[in-house]
Amino acid sequence: PGKYIESTFEIFNINEHENASYELSIDNLGTEPVSVDPKIVIYEDSFSEKVRLDKILETVSIETKSSTKIEGTLDTSLFPAGTYNVTTTLYHYGNITEFERILLVGQRALEIKDYDHQFIQGKINPFNILVQSKWNSEMTPVYARVTITDNGAVVGEFRTVSNSLEPWGAKSLMGFFDAENLESKRYLANIFVHYEDLSINKLVAIYVNDPPMSFDYRPIIISSLSVFGIFLVIILVLLIKRVNQLKSRLRGAKNEKGK
Fold first, then answer.
1. Count of other CB atoms within 10 angstroms of residue 158
2. Which of 1, 97, 106, 173 has the greatest count of CB atoms below 10 A from its CB?
3. How far is the C-alpha of 34 from the C-alpha of 40, rounded, in Å?
4. Is there a contact between 83 and 46 (Cβ–Cβ < 8 Å)?
């Protein structure tokens, strides 16, 4: 009974130089018609009070048991790439409903988020590179080339398989680093990530370590078996001695009885 609404709000991520689309749905579930005054404010980021855009939408009148959907675009074409905080406020019959959303403005770029840096000498090691897209569209192909150097001399080089990245997605690119003939020490790795017709690179330190020592359990097993064998022999000797003692007592008892 009375005035009661339920609503949803969505704003859709974009790339640089694009306008952002939004969608506001309002359902009047009460028994009285209502009027709603929506307002959208975009802030510089989640921690800033600096307003980048302030838009008051037209008043919406909704009959009882009816719904309305408001779709539109915001002039965000001059927004630089980044993350923006969006607050949408609905003023209705003396009440306020607020939505907090995030708007991502993408740029055609990748970021190297993480990479393997510890490897084992004497073997071929997997080398994983975690990359993340900053673009609101699919990127393909995406692959990495890695060059390993020691005091400026190239001692290894490999390429990962090609892959694709979903909008804003992250993925691990895997290649294989041959450390079979390398010393255990510090090296430099120049990671080049190629995406479509662009590339980025990162120069990092990596480490080739001695293989873990394998433990030979055979001496312990042999020693344990030897101790167990000696223990069994002692038990057997004691049992034989005990049996002989019992036999002697039985013979002595029989002799006493015969007398």
1. 15
2. 173
3. 20
4. yes
Contact indicator for 134, 109 with CB cutoff of 8 Å: yes
Q: What is the pLDDT of residues 215-246, one digit of tens each?
A: 666 777 777 777 777 878 788 888 888 877 77
Alpha-carbon distance 227 to 246, whole Å? 29
Tell how far CA 227 is from the center of its chain. 51
- Position 83 scores a pLDDT of 93
- For position 252, what pLDDT does the model report? 67
Quote the pLDDT of residue 225: 78
Buried b (16+ CB within 10 A) or exposed e, 109-144: ebebeebbeebebeeebebebebebbbbeebeebbb
How far the first Cα of the chain sits from its last, in Å, is 117
d(CA 177, CA 158): 7
Q: Which of 136, 131, 138 is nearest to 199 (CA)?
A: 131
CB 155 within 8 A of CB 99: no
* CA 160, chain centre distance (Å): 20
Six-digit token string for 145: 């080339």
Distance CA 216, CA 224 (A): 14
The number of helices, as runs of H, and strands, as runs of E, in the chain is 1, 18
Q: Please tell me the number of Cα atoms within 13 Å of 167 on its side-chain side.
A: 10
Neighbours of 185 (CB within 10 A): 10
| Cross-strand partners of 55 | 40
Mapping DSSP onto H, E and C, the string for 223-253 reads HHHHHHHHHHHHHHHHHHHHHHHHHHHHHHH
Which residues of the chain fall below pLDDT 70? Answer: 46, 214-217, 252-259
